[in-house]
Amino acid sequence: MRAALSWIFATLMLSVIIHIITIHTIPYAVMHRAMSRMSENAGGVNKPSFPPAPTATSRGVVRPSPDLLYVACVYDVDKNPVRFTGLVPDGYWSLSFFADNSDNFYAIDDRKLPSKSVDVLLASEDQEVQPHPGETLVISPSDKGVALFRFLVTGPAAREAMDKLRHQSGCAPA
Questions:
Q1: Which residues, listed in sequence order, are joined to residue 138 by a DSSP beta bridge?
Q2: 78: DSSP letter
Q3: Is the pLDDT of residue 76 over 70?
Q4: In the structure, what pLDDT confidence band is assigned to residue 47 with cuts at 50, 70 and 90?
Q5: What pLDDT is recorded for position 170?
Q6: Which phi and psi (to 5°) does residue 86 adopt?
Q7: 74 and 45 in contact (C-beta within 8 Å)?
Q8: Quick count: other Cβ atoms within 10 Å of Cβ 36?
Q9: Do residues 97 and 140 make contact, with C-beta atoms less than 8 angstroms apart?
Q10: Of 87, 83, 66, 78, which is closest to residue 138 (Cα–Cα)?
């Protein structure tokens, strides 16, 4: 009986350890893989990528919507802040930032912007930066991560106009 209890205890402890390791490492592994693909498509970090319109098999972004066009930017604020700019359409639009563990730490949409353009300066916690007037300063909890611009396409006729507008969005070292 004592041997059985020892095995049960050892099995439970091993299960807890494996669970904790798995829960901690999977978000980083998933983001690392996604950031590698996205930065490869963009030609490096701190450069925008303009993926084609999502289809039923698209998985560059988790659960992509066929009604949205995306601009992806893998950022690295280790040495310099990164500036995100773009024009905002009349319909739904958003810009979301994800840390290297997949946490969404900042998002803004068309309803929260005071104008039809966006200007965000992303910096690390230890960088001393002063944003320009009209620029929003966002502090990233990790040096690397992903930013996603999303543009709603209201119908087939609007796709070309939204595609042109999204190509005016991007990211670059500040």
A1: 122
A2: S
A3: yes
A4: very high
A5: 95
A6: 170, 170
A7: yes
A8: 11
A9: yes
A10: 83
* Virtual torsion, Cα 128, 76, 29, 59, nearest 10 deg: 130
CATH for 42-173 (3.30.230.10, 1.10.340.30, 2.60.40.1610, 3.90.550.10): 2.60.40.1610
| Start-end of H helices in the chain | 2-42, 159-166
110-157 pLDDT per residue, tens? 999 888 999 999 999 999 999 999 899 999 999 999 999 999 999 888
List the chain domain ranges: 42-173
pLDDT in the model for residue 30: 85
Q: Please tell me whether residue 51 adopts helix, strand or coil conformation.
A: coil
Query: Do residues 152 and 91 lie in contact, with contact meaning Cβ atoms separated by under 8 Å?
Result: yes
Longest dimension (CA), the chain: 73
